[in-house]
Amino acid sequence: MRIYQSEDYQAMSRRAANIISAQVIYKPDCVLGLATGGTPVGTYKQLVEWYKKGDLSFAETRSVNLDEYLGLSPHHEQSYRYFMQDNLFDHIDIKPENTHVLNGLAKNPEAECAAYNKLIQDLGGIDLQLLGMGHNGHIAFNEPGDDFGLETHLVDLTESTIEANKRFFESRDEVPRHALSMGIKNIMNARRILIIVSGEEKAEIVKKAFTGPVTKDVPASVLQLHPDVTLVGDKAALHKLVEAGVQVCG
Ligand code: PGA
Question: Hey, is 80 helix, strand or coil?
């Protein structure tokens, strides 16, 4: 695993965007696995900026997103489809038909999940999967205790995730209780993984995930078993790893 420590959120975002743009330049028709949440906003902003400068094109790139709330339409401002349009897709030249987000309004969630697994396979698998990490170590909506062998599935959100995500909604009651999410197996099948973390509140879980045992209690710990993981974080999120003696690149 490579670990890059950046000074702050902005520098972390630039570094992550650099890695994504390198992937797109080397393989223009690559399949990017994309993530939502607060952490990747700066990364997407940087990619948009480089696209607008003419340094980067997504004309051939395909994308698959990690997850979506069940019950939210793509037009709902808190849906992950809306997030992706708003933060990235509407501002770059990626073809709409090449962007894939699970359908939160699917009448048959199980069928939607099965079709998504097939889609990823038909696209040839994910070249680079971008991930954030939850305070409880979740990746996508794979919560502590979830089986590492799961593919895309229907999830009951945990109290801790509902609590963490309520900041995006008018009230806690409005946070959906279910989601559709790629499973750990889909994520581990990606050829490369880029995980980004920012802020002091992630420092403890980052240390646990990457220096502790690989355990279902900390879903992100499974990444220790992946052959090509890059962790990019700011100083605040990485300082406990560094204090534990883990080598990082500046
Ligand atoms: P955040 O969420 O980027 O908003 O901290 C990360 C996650 O829950 O995966």
Answer: helix
